[in-house]
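TEACHING EXERCISE
Course module: macromolecular assemblies
Task: Read the component lines below, then compare them to the predicted structure of the full complex.
Student: A.B.
Group: 4
Components provided:
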Amino acid sequence: MVVTQPGELHEEHEHEHVHLPQHRHHFETEEQQREAASFGMWLFLLTEIMFFGGLFMAYLLYRNWYNPAFVAASHTLSIKLGALNTAILITSGFCMAMAVWAAETRKRKALVNFLGLTNFFGIAFLVVKYFEYAEKWHDSHIPGLKFSIADFGKLGVDMAQKTQVYYSLYFAMTGMHALHMIIGIVLIFWYMVRANRGEFTEGYVAPIENFGLYWHFVDIVWIFLFPLLYLIDLGAK
Amino acid sequence: MSTIVSLPDQSTAALPKRNYLNAEHGLLSWLLTGDHKRIAMLYLISITGFFFLGGAFAGLVRLELLTPAGDLLAADTYNKMFTMHGIVMIFLFLVPSVPATLGNFLIPIMIGARDLAFPKINLLSWYLYLIGGTFTLTALVLGGVDTGWTFTTPLSTHYLNTHVITTGLAIFVAGFSSIFTGLNFIVTIHRMRAPGMTWFRMPLFVWSNYAASILMVLGTPVLAIAIVLVVLERTIGLGVFDPAKGGDPLLFQHLFWFYSHPAVYIMILPGMGVISEVMANFSRKRVFGYTAVAFSSVAIAVFGFFVWAHHMFIMGVSNYSALVFSLLTMLVAVPSAIKIFNWSATLYKGSITFETPMLYAFGFIGLFTIGGLTGVFLGSLGMDIHLTETYFIVAHFHFVMVGGMLMAFLAGIHFWWPKMTGRMYPESLSKLAAVTTFIGFILTFFPQFILGYLGMPRRYHAYPADYQVLNVLSTAGATVLGVGYLLPILYLAWSLKYGEIAGPNPWQATGLEWQLQSPPLTENFTEIPYVDYEAYDFEWLAHKQKQEVTTVG
Amino acid sequence: MGISPVLWQFLNKWLTSSALFPKEASTIAPYADALYFFLLAMTLVGVLIVGALVFGFSLRYRKERSPEATQIEGSTLLEATWTIIPLVIFLVTFVWGALLYFRIYNPPANSMNIYIVGKQWMWKAEHPGGQHEINTLHVPTGRPVQLTMISQDVFHSYSIPEFRVKREVIPGRYSTVWFNATEPGVYHLFCTQYCGTLHSGMIGTVTALSPDDYQKWTDASTSGMSLAQNGERLFASLGCNQCHTGDAGARGPNLAGLYGKKVQMEDGSTQLANEAFLRDTILNPSSHVPAGYKPIMPTYQGQISEEGLIDLVEYLKSLKTNYRVQQTLTTATSTEAAPTTPGMVKP
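Instructor-supplied answer key:
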């Protein structure tokens, strides 16, 4: 029978926690709410993995077929800029981790500052990316829009044409990654406003934690993209 | 005519004063609601609209096929019709049908929660669905799209001049709606179960929706990226699938079917959940082999991910992968067989009554058995060569999706209608609708199996005259089917105002949802229940009712 | 009694001219039909069992006769039964289907080869003797015929229901199917893969002729030049013979006798020189550099039509010894501009 037990479970918790304004009433306890949010975020990241997974599958297939084209096209990318961006993104990830720490230890000022730093590095990443894309435009390496195989004289014409597949994947993968960065940056601005109001430094840290997961996920995607796109067969240069 | 329907005394019965329908008033209170029940109703209204839109396209397709010559519609119009029929029915009706309406309404109640874990995301799902629907309608108004719902490259990327991008975006957005619904369900089922509601006390409806949610969360993003690449290929000319640039058009089909095969399980699994509930309730018996049915849902979800290439047997996949995928296809057929037998065995030593939901459920079992077994024809490599891309495929798919899923959806709508609205529908009219649907369905789609074996290709605007007789039968059947689908919307709408008051538990069912008032309160439960009985425990129900009588007396 | 004439006509048509099964017109067809009837029987038995259970229980245990339900947990034995029996049946189907699949897609060694080029919305057939057909296909009975097919644009699918064979026709890649027609007659030919506006117009006929009639047809419709002869001219006019001279020290490898051999590649792999290999080597030479040669061959992508490629492939297949190459070489140098078939070489 539906024996209603007058809150045997949640009463316990209510003694431990102060009842926060962010507590949503369909959750029995704040603990439950927090767990649900974090679980949901992990599931969302799983979705994201599958999303990028399709692109990685395509990459694997074509790199196997057109390895010389992939090597040659990859060498037209600037490893320096790529490495710089990797460093920027790792720093940004570190700042994000610090922001989570600040939220957990209830340091409002530090939280806002670290979020700001995270965002600064995120934007810096996009600026560098912009210059890389501009270079591609200048060199006519954008399939469909502006493309020429002039830089790949060493390859046969037929293989040089296949560099278009590499660049298609390069733009699709880095473009999707950049789109995730842009979404993240917009969200951070919003979180900064809310953090400044002190919303996340009174014990309600779930949004910051979960956003941190998202941000780290975007970092990790880049950690895979960098070697796969920039560092192919360096010995062959 | 025996019946278990136990309605309260109609002269005194009244709808509960406070319920989720009248908790707040005004359009905005619906459009900004976080209540899973209201969102379910929003979904119900919108998917019904799209169902009849998709049905209208199907009607035109069948009408064109009445005669062998392409005389009613121009070839490209016909192509647009079947494309829009497929896109609307699959992405805007079948995928959200049971999960987003019945699932949304019932899952939180069935597991003893006040709402889904993320009510705002739930509302967002509905808006995304609407945006997807709007994009589809935009594409339609602008002139339609004629890629077929499969968007095969390079046809869709380079050879057609219709609104592929708009439609692609529609599917992309609607896909996120489905991802968020699935995510919400999984989190809710993991984290929000009431005390005592263990995994094996959950109703099988929850299990099957859980399995479908896994598919939504893991499969849909792959479709999303495939569609993005098609759109990028059309707009700026990236070359991932373009053979002229070195891309492989077959890769698109791999990515597409990686979602779209599991998608048929997204569509059918929740329907199977409905059938489990209905069969148990109207035979007054727990579902035979509860764990087997529960695990078969999960098995379908898991195997469902590894059979996608059976859509491509004749497309030059290697012999080895053809063998592996055919074998796995045979394996995925087994859990469905298990379910069919368990439902049949549920009837054994029951006390069976034949209300409308039960009739639809019988229809489901019959048609799904045929649909499932004809799937084995197609999974069998050599047979697939002759049958694929013919009307046999069309018939098989419609037996599973329309004969199976739509029957299940209607069974569920009729079963939970009293709970959702607090009112009963006219029983004899609804039985008539169920029988009409069944007859119309058989007449429409059975001839298509024969057409398929004769070799009539699908998606043909005109066809050789020797296939006409069967096509005429099919079109005639479609008319009957159309009537069968129009009836429910009429009497269900009527019942909203004039139906008899249902009371909390008209079917004498055991589910947690039936122990609440109909329609339920916005917060479902005033106190979160403690669950100490298993699903379909009719002895517990009998005991409880005896208790109530003693207390009241 | 006024039965409406339309209805009468319909009934008449139904009873007289509506088949349930297509004609069996190839050696494959009986095998396919055998599996089909097995599967039909399986479906029938399955539906009967489920129907008997549902109807039987519904009658026996309806509320009037069985007012009180007996609660039953389940039965592991029964679960196992209806897991294992369907599994076994499905596995039988799998094995049977796989055998049929290999029967349909593995051509016998002695089959004659016809090339099919699909494009929106027509089928072109090219016979080795140089006969061209559009939306028709003439084949002899009693002899295995292999179709080597390719699409110029989108996916198509070549389907002959009376032969129970079908195969996707893919852009940029050869696919094959074979059959052995048993009965002379005219059969449906369909494109079954949706390919755009006039998809349903991409149909035609396959005419199976007795060997004598086929011979007559071949003689009557030849264009005078076999595919290999066309290929020979193309080989010369494209200048292929300047590197592939057939000499030991030539810049390109000797092509005589290449077809059907395994070729050692520069990157260490070996590739089988079949039709697909020959075609792809002309278009994507960089991916097929044989061991010991430099990657200097230019690509002919965009310069040769699919028909031209077929001619070249047929020519290369016909090169059993070096003699013909040498001959082609001299022909090319002596009569400066070798007569080219119009439309074969695109500028």
